[in-house]
Amino acid sequence: MTDAALAPDTRPTRKRETLLELSGVSVSFDGFRAINNLSFQIGEPELRAVIGPNGAGKTTFMDIVTGKTRPDEGRVTWGERNVSLLKMSESRIAREGIGRKFQKPTVFEAQTVEENLAMALKAPRGPFDVLLGRTGASGAERITAIATEIGLAEHLPRIAGELSHGQKQWLEIGMLLAQDPRLLLVDEPAAGMTPAEREHTTDLLKRLAERHAVVVVEHDMEFVRRLGCKVTVLHEGSVLAEGSLDHVTANPEVIDVYLGR
Amino acid sequence: MRALVRSNPSILWFLGLLAAFCLGVTFLAEATGTGAISTSFVKTLGKTLCLCLVAIAMDVVWGYCGILSLGHMAFFGLGGYAIGMWLMYARTEIIVSASLASAAIPPTPQEVEDAIASQIFGVVGASEFPWLWAFADSLVLQLAMVVLVPGLLALVFGWLAFRSRVTGVYLSILTQAMTLALSLYLFQNASGLRGNNGLSGLQNIPGLGGVPQSVVSIAFFWVSAVALALGYLLFAWVVSGKMGSVVRGIRDNEARVRFLGYHVEGFKLFVFTLTAIVAGLAGALYYPQAGIINPAEIAPIASIYLAVWVAIGGRGRLYGAVIGAASVSLLSSWFTGGGAPDIDLGFYEIQWTDWWLVLLGLSFVAVTLYAPKGIGGLIDLVAERRAPSRSRDLGPDASALRKTEAAE
């Protein structure tokens, strides 16, 4: 990553502390237990991959952390002061520093790449701040730096809807960078990317994880192996195994539910 | 300001055309020009400008922010009622004072007030001022009401609705319910606003008794035009830049905007309230030109018409709303005012006063099916063709050329 893209982040690389903690979280949809007594911790900085078969609760897990879904029971605490995320709105949680990249690229297709990035850029978020505030030179610089990082510098004035699938993925990663969150939740970042782009994504995530907490949900084992980080295996809404990739892939239960098929 | 105009060339076009139109009307009006345009038609044009103003407000709330409010004419009507109260009070006061002045004993202020009250409310069988009229004797306070009443109603209604995440059709139904409830309330004689009689005689501006209507009409026409120009600039500014990005983002993907950290409800409330205030101001300019306001003006159908104007004109572009409101409301008064010749089919005579609504309905369907971007979309088509070709290569990606291909 270019230095400018990380410029506002002056937090030193420090000893790992727990940033996010879920304990005993359960949630049911119409009687179906999507998340069952899930406990999960991530420190800052840390890179973590979450894998699991379809329906294991990966997306619901992200929905709970970002406030989209309220759990029936359990605690979700955040930051040094262990504040609960459960009473916060989605937008408040995002302002606390949790950024999310969706599985399907969701950018604002009717707007230009530059507008998409400007909207995501870390800045006061109130209606009057937005109306009266200006992006300014430093903001424009940061947008250019991020666009360079995600390979879209040439495409800033283009309408996002015209971009290819892979470029939209990049744009969404760029929006995540622009938000400058402490915790990044990244859902299948490499889907629809070329091998070269996948490599770039891996590098980017690794570098981000030097300073931030990054949770990557991924299906592709090869991609997870390249990340070279701790892996959490979800199954039926709870943690089945946790550890290095070699450790979890050697686990007979994991092989049974996920890898054996 | 300069950056705003540069980023949105429609502003200059719009202001230029509006200025040319106003000058043309002034030179043809009875009071200031040749008299080719009658005073009543000047009033119609002035009212049309007010409708254009409320239409751009509707376009911002619906076309840009995606909230299909079917209640914005309620705010328009409230603005009209607020200014109408002062107009009626002040004019009645002048008449009553004049008639009491000839009495042997000079009347006390209380006697004057009672006389005004029985003059205004005799028609609904009351002779006392309801609390609603507490500020009616003050132009300044009633002008404040023009802004405050629609603004506060929109703020409270919007807060309740947006906070509970009511969206889409359900929100539209709620806004219809709001405007219906308001008009039903005002229909009651006990509402304090003269029930279904409404407020009348609003074209007579107190203190300007000696000024002929031809002059009053052209003055209101100009004030309406200036208000429309300022409203256009205000909304062009609001929907430009980052605010515009966020507002359009809310229309296209509300949840995504939320996950970026924006408090979506706050933005919706801001847009809803701001547009309601502008609608109130437009109403305050409209009704002195119309001369009368009654609860039928804020019936649900009025707000639906507003949405139809914006849809026909092309939502998501401010000039589209102006085109839609101006063309449809002028055509409507032409057809319903007996301007269009009836068509005799031999076995049946098409009378436009009855058939105009059918024609409007058909054109709405036609626009929805064949020109989803409305009349304003046709202007975009022309503008895009005439725009100079992009100087820079868009890159090898074939999809990059798709936009120009689509226009050809």
From TrEMBL, chain A:
<dbReference type="GO" id="GO:0005886">
    <property type="term" value="C:plasma membrane"/>
</dbReference>
<dbReference type="InterPro" id="IPR027417">
    <property type="entry name" value="P-loop_NTPase"/>
</dbReference>
<dbReference type="InterPro" id="IPR032823">
    <property type="entry name" value="BCA_ABC_TP_C"/>
</dbReference>
<dbReference type="Pfam" id="PF00005">
    <property type="entry name" value="ABC_tran"/>
</dbReference>
<protein>
    <submittedName>
        <fullName>Urea ABC transporter ATP-binding protein</fullName>
    </submittedName>
</protein>
<dbReference type="InterPro" id="IPR003439">
    <property type="entry name" value="ABC_transporter-like_ATP-bd"/>
</dbReference>
<keyword id="KW-0067">ATP-binding</keyword>
<dbReference type="Pfam" id="PF12399">
    <property type="entry name" value="BCA_ABC_TP_C"/>
</dbReference>
<dbReference type="InterPro" id="IPR051120">
    <property type="entry name" value="ABC_AA/LPS_Transport"/>
</dbReference>
<keyword id="KW-0813">Transport</keyword>
<dbReference type="GO" id="GO:0016887">
    <property type="term" value="F:ATP hydrolysis activity"/>
</dbReference>
<dbReference type="GO" id="GO:0005524">
    <property type="term" value="F:ATP binding"/>
</dbReference>
<keyword id="KW-0547">Nucleotide-binding</keyword>
<dbReference type="InterPro" id="IPR017781">
    <property type="entry name" value="ABC_transptr_urea_ATP-bd_UrtD"/>
</dbReference>
<dbReference type="InterPro" id="IPR003593">
    <property type="entry name" value="AAA+_ATPase"/>
</dbReference>
<feature type="domain" description="ABC transporter">
    <location>
        <begin position="20"/>
        <end position="261"/>
    </location>
</feature>
UniProtKB/TrEMBL annotation, chain B:
<keyword id="KW-0812">Transmembrane</keyword>
<keyword id="KW-1133">Transmembrane helix</keyword>
<feature type="transmembrane region" description="Helical">
    <location>
        <begin position="292"/>
        <end position="311"/>
    </location>
</feature>
<feature type="transmembrane region" description="Helical">
    <location>
        <begin position="41"/>
        <end position="62"/>
    </location>
</feature>
<protein>
    <submittedName>
        <fullName>Branched-chain amino acid ABC transporter permease</fullName>
    </submittedName>
</protein>
<feature type="transmembrane region" description="Helical">
    <location>
        <begin position="218"/>
        <end position="239"/>
    </location>
</feature>
<dbReference type="InterPro" id="IPR001851">
    <property type="entry name" value="ABC_transp_permease"/>
</dbReference>
<keyword id="KW-0472">Membrane</keyword>
<feature type="transmembrane region" description="Helical">
    <location>
        <begin position="69"/>
        <end position="89"/>
    </location>
</feature>
<dbReference type="InterPro" id="IPR043428">
    <property type="entry name" value="LivM-like"/>
</dbReference>
<dbReference type="Pfam" id="PF02653">
    <property type="entry name" value="BPD_transp_2"/>
</dbReference>
<feature type="transmembrane region" description="Helical">
    <location>
        <begin position="355"/>
        <end position="382"/>
    </location>
</feature>
<dbReference type="GO" id="GO:0015658">
    <property type="term" value="F:branched-chain amino acid transmembrane transporter activity"/>
</dbReference>
<feature type="transmembrane region" description="Helical">
    <location>
        <begin position="169"/>
        <end position="187"/>
    </location>
</feature>
<feature type="transmembrane region" description="Helical">
    <location>
        <begin position="260"/>
        <end position="286"/>
    </location>
</feature>
<dbReference type="InterPro" id="IPR017778">
    <property type="entry name" value="ABC_transptr_urea_perm_UrtC"/>
</dbReference>
<feature type="transmembrane region" description="Helical">
    <location>
        <begin position="318"/>
        <end position="335"/>
    </location>
</feature>
<dbReference type="GO" id="GO:0005886">
    <property type="term" value="C:plasma membrane"/>
</dbReference>
<keyword id="KW-1003">Cell membrane</keyword>
<feature type="transmembrane region" description="Helical">
    <location>
        <begin position="139"/>
        <end position="162"/>
    </location>
</feature>
